[in-house]
Amino acid sequence: MKVMEALGYAVAAYGVYFAVKCVRILRADCDLPTMRAKLPKDAYKGKVCWVTGASSGIGKAIAYQLVEQGATVIISARNVQKLNEAKADMVAKFGCPEGSVHVLPADLGALDSLPAVAEKALAAYGRLDVLVNNAGVTAFILGKDMSMEVLQNLMTTNFLGQVCITQKCLPALVKSKGTILNMVSRTGVISGLPYRTAYCASKHAMVGYFGALRSEHMEEIKVTNIYPGLVATNFCEASVTSDGDSFASKNKSGAKLFDLDKSTLTPERVADRSLAAAYNNIWDVWIWSNVLECLCFYFNQYSPEISKSTLIDGATKLRDNMGKEIEKSTKGH
Ligand SMILES: NC(=O)c1ccc[n+]([C@@H]2O[C@H](COP(=O)([O-])OP(=O)(O)OC[C@H]3O[C@@H](n4cnc5c(N)ncnc54)[C@H](OP(=O)(O)O)[C@@H]3O)[C@@H](O)[C@H]2O)c1
Fold first, then answer.
1. Ligand 1 binding residues, C-beta < 6 A
2. Of 176, 185, 203, 247, which one is least surrounded by beta carbons within 10 A?
3. 235: CA distance to ligand 1 center in Å?
4. Coil, strand or helix: which one is 229?
């Protein structure tokens, strides 16, 4: 009898523990190890960091937080004017010396140019401690309509370009026992978003490549992959259409494919948790903007069959709605 009673208490205690854990997960905006990860104010002080895609959004927020921490930062993107403005703003805001922010123009889609760009990054301060592979672009095009040119450009910008500069920086990162921080996406772990064939493929490629690279250099470097849900940036406006132009240039009606402005996930929050996760050597980081995205992550990971049935319903609706929005935006009504 006593054994049964003890067993009952144990089951009840576990039930309470499980319920508390579920509530904590649903109230958080990221997985619990990431939520708990500490980021001391000087975690990156004195480090030399290279951030790609630093002219806007998440990359810009990461660069700002690194400079605030006292790091020396190389910022890259195609838009040099925006990079120079960001540098001037950081110098004014944080009172850091001009020399602690280095503007390095780079087009991740121009593969042949990247070895020379990486050499310039390494020469800028003679060492490298942190490489943030953040630059990226998306496309809202059905797989059947995707031209090889657009697909190739997206795969190069989001994957091959990152691999190219990583390879070039690897000896320096090994020497400094450094960190690679990859801004992947929920689409790198959750398959099945319609209109995102190329984007999903490029982000899955990053997960595969950098997971294997981590294993090859386990004692020498740290690799952290970040999988954010919808973040409030200009990412959708910058997406490419089937003829290679940006969605913003075609969008006559002001249609929103995803209303990212309303996302609760800010670039600053993603930057903060990403830097905390990398500092604590967390390998895979889930960050979400709403409970639905949170459940998607957990079901996808722990119960793919449940995830499958929600996907069949959700993906079909999403495909039809997005098709209408894209048509409306390009026709202007
Ligand atoms: N926003 C989201 O919902 C979301 C969710 C998950 C993951 N992400 C990922 O987060 C990363 C940053 O995106 P974001 O949301 O911050 O969007 P964003 O504000 O549009 O920033 C994208 C950055 O990438 C740069 N970039 C784009 N194409 C490039 C190229 N060919 N060469 C060099 N730089 C290039 C852009 O600069 P230039 O245009 O000046 O070159 C910009 O600095 C991306 O990798 C994206 O996949 C975003």
1. 52-59, 77-79, 82, 106-109, 134-137, 157, 183, 185, 228, 230-231, 233-235, 238, 260, 267
2. 176
3. 6
4. coil
